[in-house]
Amino acid sequence: MSTFNVPTREEVSSNNQAIFDNLEKAVGFVPNLFATYAYSENALSNYLNLSNSKTSLNAKQKEVVNLAVSQVNNCIYCLSAHTAIGKMNGFTDEQILELRAGYASFDEKLDGLAKLAKNITENRGATDRVVVDNFFAAGWTKENLIDTIVLVGDKTISNYLHKTTEVPVDFPVAQPLDEVTV
Asked: Helices 108-122 and 93-101 sit at what angle, rounded to 10 degrees?
């Protein structure tokens, strides 16, 4: 059981209340994990600025990284959220399972990205040279490499926040990967 309650709009600062209002308009609700960032005066805005910053990766490519990283870090909240977002970005259930497992048999370029994100996360940045070489061979650039590393860090922050706080998942809960055939 979580020792953290999800703060309501009334329980956060006026700056965070304004962010809650914007999230409500944009997403239709304030996700529990975002609300939990609002225990800090600055963390929610800082995280959203990082998460929404310009990158060389498009939305679909970002979901490849988010799914692979969240699986390695075993974050059920982020796996659930990014399964829903992955579907909104056009991935099928089967493709999402592959991405969570760190590969993409359906697309060579996304395969290189998924394998890189998984390897960076598993090895805490001590990425295998062969994985990096394969990433470049699949058509990615040095800019894409740097942006992927930043995104791994971004997603790891949320993974760690949920793993520590255990706030309730407010998305359809993703199945454990070991319960499905990939």
From this structure: 40
